[in-house]
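Model the whole thing, not chain by chain.
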Amino acid sequence: MSNNDGLRILASTQATQRLSRRSFLAGATVTAVAGSTLITGCGSSEPEPTAGAGSSAGPIEDQLNMYTWGEYDSPKVLKEFTASVGPKLQVDSYNSNEEMVNKLVATKGTSGYDLVVPTGPFIPQMVANDLLEPIDLTRLPNFSNVDTVYLGQSWDPNNDHSVPKAWGTTGYAYDTTKVDREMATWQDFLDVASTTASGQVSILDSPDNVVGLYLWAKDIDWMTTDMALLDEAQDYLVNTLAPHVKKFESYPGSNGMPQGSFWLVHAWNGDARQGILSSDDKDRWKWVLPTPRTEIWMDNWCIPKGAPNPNAAYAWIDYVLDPGVSLKELSYIGYHTAIKGIEPAANEAGLDRLDIVFFTPEQIATMEAGELNDAQQKRVDIWNAMKAAAGR
Amino acid sequence: MSDEVLASPGVRRWRAPGFMLAVPAWAWFVMFFVLPVGFVILLSFGAKPDIFRPYSLEVLSFDQYAKALDPAYGPTLKNTLRVGITGTIACLVIALPFAYWLAVRVPPRWRGLLLGLVLVPFWTNFLVRTIGWQLIISPDGIASSALQQLGVISQPLNFLYSRSAVLLGVVYNYLPLMILPLFVAFDRLDPTLREASKDLGASRYRTFTQVTLPLAMPGVVAGLALVFIPLMGDYITAEVLGGAKGNMLGQLIASQFLSAQNWPLGAAMAVLLMLSITVTGLIFALVGVTVRGVLRRRRRIVIDVLEVAA
């Protein structure tokens, strides 16, 4: 079965021919094309089927257990879902894909969760290890609202097991009252971290991002499996950068930034936006999407094997794919929700700091997706060693 | 048979053997101590095959210990010992006079209330209490603004996410565990012993160091153990208040189990942590016993029997 067979129902034939769907996250060389389609994709409005949650096999259960990233759904949307659709929600959160995968593996289909939100590259192995149920897209009328640019990614070419939830990138923010200079690159980050902002720096508590910090500054592919380069990264991170770090923190936006605990924070864009918006003095912070390279990641709704409330899970996915609901989600989490026309809608609604949510095709061209490769263990080792060295 | 029983002068009833009383305790001990610790030790000899399996016990080896003993983790062990030892001593220094005052000086009718107040923090969740400190000592917290208004500091307080913040947190969290055994030890002392010491001409200081304190030693040792052992394995306090500088082994172990998903390495680190707690405890016990021996020798009063007889 070719990719097009699986997708014909999802978009007009005109659109599927026009779009290079898989190219969006495939690499810097082709993303420029994808970037341009992003814009046209956002502008064009295709006929939308009427929404109707739960055209499903059986009634919607009255409970829904979600296992997702921290602060990753608007509390308002969660409440409204229960009010209008029915199922009561229980939301647990994790800090890394590994943590989530492990819980599913350890419980062997009895985790009790109905929804998980893995990042793309983890999906093929989760499918291979029989952790995910296939998703029947015909049960999601609102699936047609997803911008086709984000469908059929390399990790799930036919979206048999996943539906896009949100995508984002990694950058940094700095307190302009403390760091009195312009910053634009990862090298600037490393320079300031080890001089002006020494001892006031927060670094993402995630192996890939820690290693990426150095490799991006040197304009090297962050998923490299070249051990010599990784050793070089380890030497710099452990011996040079580690002593200047104040905290390894994946969500600096929720506490550290508003508290004023850091001068320089390495953060995912949505979290940085939350941190800036919840600070008393918002203008103090400057957000930077650093050059020459950075990350792009996409998280996806998946239904784990043995989900006790699958109909409620379908109802939820369909519910958040509604453009209106999706806008509320975006307004809270600060990440692009992959829905058609969400950018103009967000602009029209006058949401704050959309420069941290939406990016230009040129910016997207500098972003590279992560993968699960042979260097995974080495990256974890570097991250461990750096954290240990920071306490010296 | 019933005739026989009735016929015997004292009715013989079946009596459970004494050890039966200890069965629940032994069952608990086996289920919740021997088995889990045994499994952790077994796990520490395993390996991590791939990210979809946190451990495998197919091939047993010492590889994880070699990794856990990597010099890279040296600073974390040093930090942990430093916080563990300083924190325990700080708890002792604060708790000793307080427990003495509570047990000896405070009128008995107030003791219950004060002891209750010592326990009040335990009514709140450990994590919530620690996060409370985070709010207090953060740069925009109340401690920072109060100190700035008093003119003690000119910049916002830069105390959160440091080793000292962890020390503050552990002393706060574990202090009641030191106060309670000390209080019990002082409370049990017979006041007449202190009076006797005074009658024999000892100063208050001498009475305390030579009568009260030696008799309260079991309480001191219990308090030291109750504070030092859980403190060394604590990771919540360090996670919430410590940042990168105040990291402890507990965090490293937790991250092996939760984030890195390398259970064997985490287990090996846990075994090493238990060993380092034991070794530190033994060293202190040895020092304690030696000091006591020396003191006893110096204070011994030799009564020459012949001289007395003559």
